[in-house]
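seq as requested:
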Amino acid sequence: MIIEWNQHIFSHDTVRYPLYPQAAYTPDMSVHPADPMGAYLQRMDEEKIDRAVIVHPEPYGDDHRMVLECLEREPERLRGTSLFYPKDRDAPNKLADLVAREPKIISTRFHAHRGKNMYLDSFDDKGVRALWEKAVELGLIVELHIGPDYGAQIASVLRDIPETVALIDHLAEPHMGNAVEFADILQLGTCKAEYHNVYMKLSGLNHFAQDAPLYESAKPFTQRVIEAFGPERLVWGSGVPAIVDVHMEDCIEAERALVKGENLNKLLNWS
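struct tokens:
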């Protein structure tokens, strides 16, 4: 079982799917195909990806029409994430309404790292806590697109809301922090008893390494993360599935299978 959690789907039709003007970035549509969902399904078949979690991208703000249409098109193979703004007092209610409308929304995503401070100021903010608590109440995975400088804040929230199932995105964007800050991230892995429901996504290697497609130059770093979290709390996220084999070459095949999809299959109760 291979499950990818990362794909963003963008449409050239910006009338039907308008872009959010305050988003942290605008997609370069020249690199996106006319039928993005069709192209992604073809890639899934070619790379033998069985299932996927479509990540609702920032440029659409909290307008989820695109991800909802993707889930409607492929309800058996796909699940989706959501994005709301903690500074919006109605965000928890909007999240509840979305999940009630489409139960295949299995996560909500928080953004907090350098360059994306517009989403929240601190994880201690009341709006953040309210949205986080609503996600947990709904049984969603809390996806954390954070930089290392937010590791200590995340640990505090997890201690306050221990029933959280959290997934840290893109190895916590290590290039956006320093070694001292990243030690807080690694502690979420090594302190298994306290943070046993915290998972790390093996993804985003292209954010700090250039040797695609396997990014072997990043192995000294990924080894530290793999050692801290262990195969049972790692999830493959982007690139090609062979990234798992290369960066976990010292692990047995059964452990690599956990990361490629079995961990997610169990987390999502995906029958």
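The longest strand covers residues 105-112.
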